[in-house]
C-alpha cells in the first residue's frame, strides 16, 4: 500500500534528477552553436 506509493514517488524524483544530471554530462556543449543546422544548408 503506502510503501509502494512512497517508492514510486521517490523513484520518480530520483529518475528526474538523475536524467537531468546525465543530460548535462552528455550534452556539455551549449546549444548556441547551431553549426549542425548551418551544415544542412
From TrEMBL:
Q: Name one Pfam family in it.
A: NiFe_hyd_3_EhaA
Q: What InterPro entries would the database entry show?
A: Prd_NiFe_hyd_3_EhaA
Q: What cellular component GO annotations does this protein have?
A: plasma membrane
* UniProt subcellular location: Cell membrane
Binding partners and assembly = Putative multisubunit membrane-bound [NiFe]-hydrogenase eha is composed of at least 20 subunits.
Question: What family does this chain come from, according to its entry?
Answer: Belongs to the EhaA family.
Q: What is this protein called?
A: Probable [NiFe]-hydrogenase-type-3 Eha complex membrane subunit A
List the source organism. Methanobacterium subterraneum
Protein's gene:
ehaA
Amino acid at each position: 500500500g503506502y510503501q509502494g506509493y512512497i517508492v514510486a514517488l521517490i523513484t520518480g524524483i530520483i529518475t528526474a534528477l538523475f536524467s537531468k544530471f546525465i543530460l548535462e554530462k552528455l550534452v556539455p556543449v551549449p546549444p548556441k552553436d547551431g553549426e549542425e543546422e548551418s551544415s544542412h544548408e
